[in-house]
């Protein structure tokens, strides 16, 4: 598994000319998207998951079980702890084998872990990627060389192995912060590379020349002329990065170096379900589906955003 | 051109050196007592002392690192008559083996996985992308788009388990993955790799289809293609002589980089299917915290990626005259 | 760790598991206990690799069974189908040891006609050399009994560094005399350990035996791919007339390593091709539900193991220094929830004593009873109030990242919450786990771990390592509770000195209850081993949970 390359790798020679759009971008994009039923559905699902994550404690009060509570009556002690039933009135999505914990509650809390980590990682990556990409692209020369070498170095690293090794070597407290940091450290070069490319081509445009000629300072040029024109690129990259990070966190949890149990996480639930998938497929299908749908929604949304923002499909 | 090559080589060496340094630093400074961790479970205080002496863990970091580098180029002798010839990637105290041997033993298997998967995903990706591009907007395009989105959304471990259940347990079309040497039974050997190839290929093929599609559409829009058509050239010649190469070259080059990445071992796939390759070695070593092995595998993977990168860049500049050598991408 | 969730590892033992029990409680599928026919290849499927091929280095449950196929020792455990499967019987020696009056010298006479796979005769010098290897700091990391019991200079470092050891005498090629530090009635059992394997003098230095075997047993190494495959073939120099224990029915053995636990179970259930000749370790908890059809039930073998899973309480950390607090915890824990987390009633039995029922010396008692083993919250709260902790307190539990252990820990967490104790889980990577909990300065308040006896003929390898206060070491400590009670120590000495094994076992049983009054550990459960051998496998006799390769084989060697 490679850390997000899909959608963020660009053929070496692709033209990066068209990035000019108006600052009224976001409002019109949203409106266009909402008119598209598929995009609207994706957005709705994403919002649903976000709501689940945000209001988790309230939701489980309604469903009746918290994610840590064992329910011995729902599993068969004589059959290795296999759940006694699937969906039921008491446990809406069934229970976890061996412990009897409510799957619905664990999905809801798992959404928290996934979204928190993915969003934090995205924010951090975007920040780093945009800043370094801008610096490298605009100032060129030695700055560019140094930053590009660093990017190359980070991209050459077998990120997955390294992340697992580092995460398992360090103690397990504050694992969430560590996950965010580690994912971001290896993630920002991909965004920075694209921002850099775009910045370099924007640099040549007339309005930038005009701004420089009129005596604007370099930072003004960067932040008021170039950055706004990158908004669409950044938007597209963000919507494509989030699913990648969700997948990464799930993968790391699957391998056992993600969030620390008993905190639930979708990836970790899938990992536990590995042994049970032939007898209790529900335990495997439920988190798997939630995860796949979330990633799918972000990707489709990302595609739609890109087609609205950049109809020629060049970036 | 030569200057470019030399520059790139120098850059490559620098990156590799930095990766080496960084990895070494992180692994040895991160853990509180590397000697104890290297020693493993059945440990005695005497063995710990021996490891400490052997690896010179009392010496300053720089000396240790230089020893490691020296071992890489010349070879190294550990106490107790253990000879580690160049390139000496370290010695695993937990399993009492020279790490280079451990990796060399498993590299062929990983290579088979990588090659098979690469062939499969390129075929699927290029064909799928071409069809999509040519049929842009029509049903075939949408259908393939749906498939690729599906392929990219499902995490590969989920896919691996699902495929295994369907094809091995339920339909019984394929045998359980086992280590069958090629010499013993070529057919079984081949069948064993089908699932791992498919799992890897599906993941990559999805993004390659999209990439191919985008590139082909772009290329077909280009002026030179329009000119060729306007000149009255037959469609298939338009393809073969003008459109295909610029459309597909970026794909092949990126495939080269992804392939190089796979040579470092497809960790999850190998573990799920019990394939005794470099990826599984990495996973097992991380479980046991066998640091010399973890470090060696990390370096090896980085090495492949960096070299792959450079080879790809060079090939690219040779094939595609539009790229000006010297402008970093 | 990490991928531990994919790697099935059901061995919680810190030390070697061997042997059988006096009170057999296993049920065997009707098909697999018959006497095997000669010939064929037995397939063994396993997830984890053997630690070492070198018996002086290796020391864990799985590899010990393997060693019996290729190596022989002076004395060994009887076969699983013997009348007393626990007993020690002579193997390379003509009879059990003759002990001197002061108990310090043990003499053995070697059988004639026993050879290595090289054709060379096995002499007493080879036995002496093999045992001397235990003192080598690099090689002797396996079973420590022989080097702890046999007298030797403090600076002796094994034959490669320090030469021969005078305290092991070899007056002629078939006589060997051991001089011990102090009397030890069970020295025969100590010699049955893998570190007692003979080797030709001068061999095995450095890493020679990492990938090579000098076989004294019925099989020899044919092919070895580390992490993947071990193939054994017959050793032509092994003479069946000199061996009362091993039957060596199959012509060859093939160990496939590195397979995933769930896949192994699938293969055994499916039984395709050579898998009908396959055996593996205990099945996954998920598989038990699928073993309910008559054919599969007929093949399934279930037996209680000799290993205890327990939670050790560090008696040096407040408030666990107060026995009432420890007793309160003992009452509070819902052992049935822990049992379910382990896999339910099929996979384990709740334990209330230190010595499992399968080990000689076991007595039945429960000092902290509760309804259905669900825990007695009221009694626990009462004891806590008496101790002055009516509002509860916080404590830390060390565990490994294995899913079953994590679930057990979570069950305990839930139980203790009910009495106001806030249990924090500290997950330690498997590779450093034993090091951490074995170092008193790094230990936390509690830890979940397991213990198996090295031999089951008595409890002498169970109680002393865990509860003798004089055994507390700075590193590699097994007395997790750090219990140092003079009465207990004295009772241990008395039991160890008894030459009558039955009387000794009675004493151990009484001591078990005496120690449990101090509640230094909470025994959780004794795991069952549930096996699903292939339908063509025979000789699956498991009186104490482990099967014996030496009596196993195939029903019909031509199949598969």
Automatic annotation (TrEMBL), chain A:
<dbReference type="InterPro" id="IPR050366">
    <property type="entry name" value="BP-dependent_transpt_permease"/>
</dbReference>
<feature type="transmembrane region" description="Helical">
    <location>
        <begin position="38"/>
        <end position="60"/>
    </location>
</feature>
<feature type="transmembrane region" description="Helical">
    <location>
        <begin position="176"/>
        <end position="195"/>
    </location>
</feature>
<protein>
    <submittedName>
        <fullName>ABC transporter permease</fullName>
    </submittedName>
</protein>
<dbReference type="InterPro" id="IPR000515">
    <property type="entry name" value="MetI-like"/>
</dbReference>
<feature type="transmembrane region" description="Helical">
    <location>
        <begin position="150"/>
        <end position="170"/>
    </location>
</feature>
<feature type="transmembrane region" description="Helical">
    <location>
        <begin position="115"/>
        <end position="138"/>
    </location>
</feature>
<feature type="region of interest" description="Disordered">
    <location>
        <begin position="1"/>
        <end position="21"/>
    </location>
</feature>
<dbReference type="InterPro" id="IPR025966">
    <property type="entry name" value="OppC_N"/>
</dbReference>
<keyword id="KW-0472">Membrane</keyword>
<keyword id="KW-0812">Transmembrane</keyword>
<comment type="similarity">
    <text>Belongs to the binding-protein-dependent transport system permease family.</text>
</comment>
<dbReference type="Pfam" id="PF12911">
    <property type="entry name" value="OppC_N"/>
</dbReference>
<dbReference type="Pfam" id="PF00528">
    <property type="entry name" value="BPD_transp_1"/>
</dbReference>
<feature type="transmembrane region" description="Helical">
    <location>
        <begin position="234"/>
        <end position="260"/>
    </location>
</feature>
From TrEMBL, chain B:
<dbReference type="InterPro" id="IPR035906">
    <property type="entry name" value="MetI-like_sf"/>
</dbReference>
<protein>
    <submittedName>
        <fullName>ABC transporter permease subunit</fullName>
    </submittedName>
</protein>
<comment type="similarity">
    <text>Belongs to the binding-protein-dependent transport system permease family.</text>
</comment>
<keyword id="KW-0813">Transport</keyword>
<feature type="transmembrane region" description="Helical">
    <location>
        <begin position="12"/>
        <end position="30"/>
    </location>
</feature>
<feature type="transmembrane region" description="Helical">
    <location>
        <begin position="293"/>
        <end position="316"/>
    </location>
</feature>
<keyword id="KW-0472">Membrane</keyword>
<keyword id="KW-1133">Transmembrane helix</keyword>
<keyword id="KW-0812">Transmembrane</keyword>
<feature type="domain" description="ABC transmembrane type-1">
    <location>
        <begin position="107"/>
        <end position="316"/>
    </location>
</feature>
<feature type="transmembrane region" description="Helical">
    <location>
        <begin position="143"/>
        <end position="167"/>
    </location>
</feature>
<dbReference type="Pfam" id="PF19300">
    <property type="entry name" value="BPD_transp_1_N"/>
</dbReference>
<dbReference type="InterPro" id="IPR000515">
    <property type="entry name" value="MetI-like"/>
</dbReference>
<keyword id="KW-1003">Cell membrane</keyword>
<feature type="transmembrane region" description="Helical">
    <location>
        <begin position="247"/>
        <end position="273"/>
    </location>
</feature>
TrEMBL record, chain C:
<feature type="domain" description="Solute-binding protein family 5">
    <location>
        <begin position="88"/>
        <end position="471"/>
    </location>
</feature>
<dbReference type="Pfam" id="PF00496">
    <property type="entry name" value="SBP_bac_5"/>
</dbReference>
<dbReference type="InterPro" id="IPR039424">
    <property type="entry name" value="SBP_5"/>
</dbReference>
<keyword id="KW-0732">Signal</keyword>
<dbReference type="InterPro" id="IPR000914">
    <property type="entry name" value="SBP_5_dom"/>
</dbReference>
<protein>
    <submittedName>
        <fullName>ABC transporter substrate-binding protein</fullName>
    </submittedName>
</protein>
<feature type="signal peptide">
    <location>
        <begin position="1"/>
        <end position="23"/>
    </location>
</feature>
<dbReference type="InterPro" id="IPR030678">
    <property type="entry name" value="Peptide/Ni-bd"/>
</dbReference>
């Amino acid at each position: 598994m490679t850390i997000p390359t899909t959608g963020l790798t660009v053929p070496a020679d692709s033209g990066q000319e068209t990035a000019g759009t108006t600052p009224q971008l976001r409002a019109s994009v949203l409106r266009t998207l909402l008119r598209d039923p598929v995009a609207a559905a994706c957005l709705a699902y994403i919002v649903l998951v976000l709501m689940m994550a945000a209001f988790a404690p309230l939701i489980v009060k309604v469903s009746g079980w918290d994610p840590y509570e064992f329910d011995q009556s729902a599993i068969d002690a004589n059959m290795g702890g296999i759940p006694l039933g699937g969906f039921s009135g008491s446990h809406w999505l069934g229970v976890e084998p061996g412990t009897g914990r409510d799957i619905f509650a664990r999905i809801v809390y798992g959404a928290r872990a996934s979204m928190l980590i993915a969003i934090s990682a995205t924010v951090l990556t975007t920040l780093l990627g945009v800043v370094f990409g801008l610096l490298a692209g605009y100032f060129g020369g030695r700055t560019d060389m140094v930053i590009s070498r660093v990017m190359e170095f980070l991209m050459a690293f077998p990120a997955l192995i390294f992340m697992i090794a580092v995460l398992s070597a360090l103690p397990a407290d504050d694992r969430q912060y560590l996950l965010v940091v580690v994912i971001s450290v290896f993630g920002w070069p991909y965004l920075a590379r694209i921002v850099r490319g775009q910045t370099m081509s924007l640099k040549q445009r007339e309005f930038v020349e005009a701004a420089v000629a009129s005596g604007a300072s370099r930072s003004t040029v960067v932040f008021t002329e170039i950055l706004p024109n990158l908004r669409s690129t950044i938007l597209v990259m963000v919507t494509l990065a989030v699913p990648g990070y969700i997948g990464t966190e799930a993968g790391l949890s699957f391998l056992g170096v993600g969030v620390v149990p008993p905190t639930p996480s979708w990836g970790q639930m899938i990992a536990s379900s590995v042994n049970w998938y032939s007898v209790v497929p529900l335990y495997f299908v439920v988190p798997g589906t939630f995860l796949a749908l979330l990633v799918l929604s972000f990707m489709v949304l990302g595609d739609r955003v890109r087609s609205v923002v950049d109809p020629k499909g060049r970036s | 051109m030569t200057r470019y090559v030399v520059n790139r080589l120098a850059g490559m060496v620098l990156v590799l050196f930095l990766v080496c340094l960084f990895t070494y630093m992180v692994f040895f400074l991160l853990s509180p007592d590397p000697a104890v961790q290297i020693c493993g479970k059945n440990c005695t205080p005497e063995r710990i002392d021996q490891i400490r002496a052997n690896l010179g863990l009392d010496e300053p970091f720089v000396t240790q690192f230089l020893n490691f580098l020296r071992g890489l180029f010349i070879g190294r002798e550990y106490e107790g008559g253990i000879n580690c010839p160049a390139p000496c990637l370290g010695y695993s105290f937990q399993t009492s083996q020279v790490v280079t041997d451990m990796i060399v033993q498993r590299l062929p298997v990983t290579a088979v996985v990588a090659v098979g998967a690469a062939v499969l995903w390129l075929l699927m990706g290029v064909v799928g992308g071409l069809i999509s591009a040519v049929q842009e907007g029509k049903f075939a395009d949408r259908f393939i788009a749906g498939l690729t989105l599906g392929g990219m959304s499902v995490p590969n471990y989920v896919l691996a388990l699902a495929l295994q259940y369907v094809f091995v347990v339920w339909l019984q079309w394929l045998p359980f993955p086992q280590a069958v040497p090629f010499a013993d039974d070529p057919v079984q050997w081949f069948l064993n790799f089908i699932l791992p190839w498919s799992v890897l290929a599906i993941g990559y093929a999805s993004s390659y289809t999209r990439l191919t599609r985008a590139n082909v559409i772009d290329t077909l829009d280009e002026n030179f293609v329009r000119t060729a058509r306007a000149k009255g050239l037959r469609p298939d010649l338009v393809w073969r002589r003008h459109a295909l190469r610029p459309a597909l070259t970026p794909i092949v080059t990126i495939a080269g980089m992804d392939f190089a990445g796979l040579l470092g071992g497809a960790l999850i796939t190998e573990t799920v299917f019990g394939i005794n390759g470099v990826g599984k070695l990495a996973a097992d070593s991380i479980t046991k915290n066998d640091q010399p092995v973890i470090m060696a595998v990390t370096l090896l993977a980085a090495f492949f990626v960096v070299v792959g990168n450079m080879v790809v860049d060079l090939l690219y500049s040779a094939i595609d005259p539009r790229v000006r050598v010297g402008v970093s991408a | 760790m990490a991928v531990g969730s994919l790697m099935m590892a059901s061995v919680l033992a810190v030390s070697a598991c061997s042997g059988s029990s006096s009170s057999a409680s296993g049920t065997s599928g009707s098909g697999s206990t018959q006497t095997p026919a000669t010939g064929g290849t037995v397939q063994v499927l396993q997830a984890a690799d053997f630690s070492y091929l070198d018996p002086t280095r290796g020391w864990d449950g799985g590899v010990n069974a393997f060693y019996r196929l290729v190596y022989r020792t002076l004395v060994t455990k009887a076969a699983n189908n013997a009348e007393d499967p626990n007993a020690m019987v002579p193997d390379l020696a003509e009879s059990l040891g003759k002990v001197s009056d002061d108990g310090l010298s043990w003499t053995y006479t070697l059988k004639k006609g026993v050879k290595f796979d090289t054709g060379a005769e096995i002499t007493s010098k080879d036995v002496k050399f093999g045992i001397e290897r235990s003192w080598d700091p690099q090689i002797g990391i396996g079973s420590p009994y022989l080097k702890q019991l046999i007298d030797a200079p403090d600076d002796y470092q094994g034959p490669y560094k320090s030469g021969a050891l005078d305290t092991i005498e070899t007056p002629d090629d078939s006589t060997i005399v051991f001089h011990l530090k102090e009397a030890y009635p069970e020295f025969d059992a100590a010699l049955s350990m893998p570190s007692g394997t003979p080797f030709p003098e001068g061999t095995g230095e450095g890493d020679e035996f990492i990938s090579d075997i000098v076989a004294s047993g019925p099989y020899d190494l044919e092919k070895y791919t580390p992490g993947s495959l071990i193939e054994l073939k017959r050793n032509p120099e092994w003479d069946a007339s000199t061996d009362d224990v091993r039957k060596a029915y199959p012509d060859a053995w093939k160990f496939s390593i590195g397979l995933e636990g769930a896949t192994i179970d699938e293969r055994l259930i499916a039984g395709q091709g050579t898998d009908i000749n396959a055996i593996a370790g205990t099945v996954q908890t998920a598989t038990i539900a699928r073993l309910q059809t008559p054919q599969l039930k007929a093949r399934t073998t279930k037996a209680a193991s000799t290993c205890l899973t327990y939670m050790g309480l560090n008696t040096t950390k407040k408030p666990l220094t107060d026995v009432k607090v420890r007793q309160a915890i003992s009452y509070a824990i819902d052992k049935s929830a822990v049992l379910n987390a382990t896999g339910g009633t099929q996979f384990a039995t709740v334990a209330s004593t230190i010595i499992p029922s399968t080990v000689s010396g076991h007595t039945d008692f429960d000092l902290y009873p509760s309804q259905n083993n669900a825990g007695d919250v009221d009694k626990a709260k009462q004891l806590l109030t008496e101790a002055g902790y009516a509002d509860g307190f916080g404590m830390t539990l060390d565990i490994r990242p294995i899913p079953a252990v994590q679930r057990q820990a979570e069950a305990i967490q839930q139980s203790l919450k009910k009495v106001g104790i806030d249990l924090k889980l500290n997950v330690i990577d498997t590779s450093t786990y034993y090091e951490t909990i074995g170092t008193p300065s790094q230990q936390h308040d509690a830890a979940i771990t397991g213990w198996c006896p090295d031999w089951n003929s008595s409890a002498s390898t169970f109680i002393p390592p865990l509860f003798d206060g004089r055994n507390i070491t700075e590193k590699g400590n097994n007395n997790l509770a750090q219990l140092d009670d003079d009465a207990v120590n004295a009772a241990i000495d008395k039991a160890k000195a008894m030459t009558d094994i039955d009387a000794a076992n009675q004493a151990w049983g009484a001591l078990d209850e005496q120690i449990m009054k101090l509640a230094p550990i909470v025994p959780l459960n004794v795991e069952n081993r549930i096996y699903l051998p292939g339908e063509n496998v025979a000789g699956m006799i498991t009186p104490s949970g482990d099967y014996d390769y030496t009596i196993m084989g195939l029903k019909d060697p031509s199949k598969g």
